[in-house]
Amino acid sequence: MLRALARIDLAAIERNCLLLARVVAPAALCVVVKADGYGHGAVPAARAAQAGGAAWLAVATAGEAAELRAGGIAGPVLVMGALSGPELTIALHARADVVAWRERFVAALAAHPAADGAGVHVKLDTGMGRLGTRDPEEASRTAAAVASAPRIRLAGAMTHFATSDDDPAFAREQLARFKPWADAIRTEHGPLLRHAANSAAALGIPESRLDMVRCGIAAYGMDPFGEDPRNHGLTPALELRSYLAEVKPIAAGESAGYGRRFVAAAPTWIGTVPIGYADGVRRALGDGCDVLIDGRRVPLAGTVSMDNITVDLGPAPPERGAGVVLIGAQGSERVLAEDWARRLGTINYEITCAISPRVAREHHRGAAG
Ligand SMILES: Cc1ncc(COP(=O)(O)O)c(C=O)c1O
User: Fold this and answer.
1) In the chain, which residues have pLDDT < 50?
2) Domain assignment of residue 72, given as a range
3) Structural domain total, the chain
4) Residue-level pLDDT at 260
5) What is the pLDDT of residue 369?
6) Same domain flag for 33 and 123
7) 61 and 150 together in one domain
8) Lowest CB count within 10 Å: 34, 156, 158, 174, which one?
9) Same domain for 210 and 356
10) Ligand 1 pocket, 33 CB below 6 A?
């Protein structure tokens, strides 16, 4: 029995991608596998995404592109993040496409010894306020510089939405800034991919799909709107598991955990589960969060420690060694990453990305075994 295990259902990722690919067609599906596939394992997630119809993969960093190639992943890969000189070299050696918005960057890229055939996606910042240029003329000059450089290709025109999950009206304003510019670039320089939509836009703003969508969160079966993934037919791929390492009775008035934040009101049994905040079970989860044991909900009791949590098993405790599901389903009960996110005042993305490397990953296909 492993103390802490993330079981990742690759068939669920594949199914989610099949669904997304079908929904967004004729737009192409690019699946975002940055941050170790949002905690799911970048290489296995990438392979499952491709099996589910992803024509492209996207990552944030050059190192992540290199990791995909080292793992045997073929096909188009886009590095979406900013690249320093040494990082550009890594991205080019990984045969990844890169993003540009300044002519100086294009000049350095065009002169790079490993640049032959590299695809470049020019980024217009239409309201995200992060990467890209806000100036459509600078973006157009950048695109022209790429198109006229002999060894590199103008492969895409892109932007990124700030509010597609909670303010679609602003996302539509961004789209209204992006589309005429991207269309003009395409008219001037020939075929290229116009892409803007993340998961929330791909599902909620059909006109934003353009030639390609870049979906991360939905591919992993999490809801981009922070609600129930079932609303969009998505299946969560990740289950976080541990087990009951210790089961013991405590009397009324006795406590469990740091700070004595749980004091038993009546005699009960405490279970100790060897997974804690160093594994990604955030300390702020505390009271009111449940785990699943033998198909029933069991509340956390007291403070989350670095390596352990304690749960209140009540008067009829399960056996020592019983399996504990922290995120996932057991019987008819489910605990979603979205439930944790709501409790923590954050987003589901942060929940799975925070599952630390100390937690073993096991990839499988099909129902939890
Ligand atoms: C530029 C860019 N495109 C697409 C995505 C995928 O977003 P989502 O996971 O919401 O689908 C991200 C992720 O943050 C991103 O940074």
Assistant:
1) 368-369
2) 10-222
3) 2
4) 96
5) 40
6) yes
7) yes
8) 34
9) no
10) no
